[in-house]
Amino acid sequence: MHRGIFVAATGQNVGKTTICLGLVSGLKKRHMNVGYIKPVGQEHVKTETGSSVDKDVVLFKSYFSLNDPYETMSPVLFPRGFTRDYLDGKIKREDLAHKIQTSFSSIAKNHSHTIVEGTGHTGVGSIVDLNNAQVASLLNIPIVLVASGGLGSSFDELSLNYAQCEKYGVKVAGVILNRVLEEKREMIQTYMKKALDRWNVPLIGCIPYNDFLNSPTMNDFEQLFSSKLLTGEEFRLRHFRHIRMVATSVEMYRTVIIPHQLIITPASREDIILATLTRFWDLKIAHPDMDLDAGIILTGKHPPKEALIEQIRRAGIPMLYVPLNSFVALKMINAYTTKIRREDTEKIAQATQLVESHVNFDLL
């Protein structure tokens, strides 16, 4: 018998894709033939075949070597202008529903279990009559709700999403809390289970907060600032444990140069850049097998000089320039939510391991 689980979140950037990665991986390790589909997608990319599909479909197909066609795994996309076309009657709901049902049935024939990833919270897509709860109802499969790892506010959000599921007759098979602070994890597990008892819904996962999974790479900064690396392109997937905006004296800065650090400083601060390079080469000379693992974001109205860029390039330090004030750049970074990308296999592997080890697959 085929089994499907629809995974929806209570909001944006809750970690739904991370949870789906762990679920697919965990089920596969239990010798199950697992398929994946994202019925409705918003952010799409071009594949090598020239077709447009949801970006998460590319990630799952690539990482898990899934054989189903891209178009089957990503049947419906919401490109720019889609909502207006739907409301103008140019797109029919029954046509979209048929595509989703046909694609799901096709994947169901090839797999014993299918993870169906939704888009955002259960109400997303309501304007075209295809929100997550409606799609789960259409496919006649239960929902697992993913919420942020708190208690009161998390349950409030779960309640709103649970109401959507009730409205469309969809069973909520369980709840997974993501990014739970370790010091609160035991308390949250105990009391969230009590809160969910009123719905007769189990807590099937409580995923700890993980610094590495939330650490951005230079590739993320390229996306954030719409800028390309000027040096160190081979290290665009480098992660950083520390992000420091440098506006102090070079003497003070020398005392805080540490490994795995991204520095943000104006391109005019050549003293800071040269101090970083000096520390890099000092470390290399003393320990040839070690690296400072640094990254640099240069800011300001004027780009760095070519001679300086060349010195940074020789050190192999990834660096990009953004024509913004350093404070603005740092503010944008602090507000940025990292996404898992298919190229970042290290982060994918850690995400799957973390989720697998904190989900009760017997309850699932």
For the record, what CATH class of the largest domain applies? Alpha Beta
Overall geometric form: globular
Tally of contiguous helical segments: 14
Number of extended strands? 14
Q: Indicate the percent of residues in helices.
A: 40-55%
**Strand arrangement across the biggest beta sheet:** 2-7-1-8-9-10
Radius of gyration: 23 Å
In the CATH hierarchy, the third-tier topology of the largest domain is known as: Rossmann fold
Q: Any idea what the CATH architecture of the largest domain is?
A: 3-Layer(aba) Sandwich
What separation lies between the terminal Cα atoms?
16 Å
Order of helices and strands: EHEEEEHHEHHEHEHEHEHEHEHEHEHH
Q: At the fourth CATH level, what is the homologous superfamily of the largest domain?
A: P-loop containing nucleotide triphosphate hydrolases
Description:
With 364 residues, the chain is of the alpha/beta class. It folds into two domains: 3-214 and 341-356, 3-Layer(aba) Sandwich (Rossmann fold); 218-335, HprK N-terminal domain-like (Udp-n-acetylmuramoylalanyl-d-glutamate--2,6- Diaminopimelate Ligase, Chain: A, domain 1, 3-Layer(aba) Sandwich), CATH 3.40.1390. Helices cover 42% and strands 18% of the residues. It contains 14 helices and 14 strands. The chain has a six-stranded parallel β-sheet with strand order 2-7-1-8-9-10, sandwiched between helices.
Short structural description:
This protein is an alpha/beta fold and 364 residues long.
For the structure shown, list the relevant keywords.
14 helices; alpha/beta; 14 strands; Rossmann fold; Udp-n-acetylmuramoylalanyl-d-glutamate--2,6- Diaminopimelate Ligase, Chain: A, domain 1; 364 residues; 6-stranded parallel β-sheet
